[in-house]
Prior knowledge:
Elements: H1 2-49, H2 56-70, E1 85-91, E2 105-113, E3 116-125, E4 134-139, E5 146-152, H3 180-195, H4 198-216
Antiparallel strand pairs: 1-5, 2-3, 3-4, 4-5
Helix pairs in contact: 1-2
Zinc ion binds next to loops.
The chain binds a DNA duplex through strand 2.
Keywords: DNA-binding, Nucleus, Transcription, Transcription regulation
InterPro entries: WRKY_dom (IPR003657), WRKY_dom_sf (IPR036576), WRKY_plant (IPR044810)
Organism: Solanum tuberosum
Amino acid sequence: MPSNDEAASDHLAKEVKRLSGENKKLREVLSVMYDNYNTLRKQYINNCSTSGTSRKRKAEKITSRVNSELSDEDSSCNKSRVLVHHHHIQRSDHTTLLVKDGYEWRKYGQKITRDNPYPRAYFKCSFAPTCPVKKKVQRSVDDKSIIVATYEGEHNHSKVVLEAGEGSSTTTIGHSHKQPEFNKLLIDQMASFLTRDPKFKAALAAALREKTTLTHK
DNA sequence: CGTTTTTGACCGGCGC
DNA sequence: GCGCCGGTCAAAAACG
Ligand SMILES: [Zn+2]
């Protein structure tokens, strides 16, 4: 039966393609992890060997960064808030600081920092109006082909677009960009968010009261 | 027209 | 108090 063999080989070819795509992604992740480790090691060595240069600020920053990076798993930065810090490093092209990961971001600031000639950009997740996630993106001092993004917070909406690979699976869930259904979902989310807020209830009651008295007069 | 980027103003914490 | 510094706001500009 040649058709069976053909089907089997076709299936195998598809599987190989999928696996190679997955492998590529894994390689990328590994490279990112390696870069992360390398920069961290550099900073650690630098911190250990710079006992002569009096830079208490630098030392403090490095220690804090080391702590946040190393104890990310165990005692995930009990700094002051419930906010969850998460660091990630991403390869970049040469001149862009606008990074496309699976979310939509609105840039709301950019500052120059003391110990880094490259500016730092501040983004907020604009996918849902109620999403509190922010991220800071700035090029690394040591390796200029690397930009480091620190995420903060947790998304409260479903992640939508996942991957832009050429593999067989382009797992885009439904909505692309401009659907009334999506807007409806957003409005629903906002409404539930507002009605859950007692302050909003009080304000609404006050407004209604004022309006009724006004019309009653 | 709505949304996003730009960019200086602004604010609050911290060390002095 | 003052200045520094990281973070945010918001008005204008830019984009589609
Ligand atoms: Zn989000």
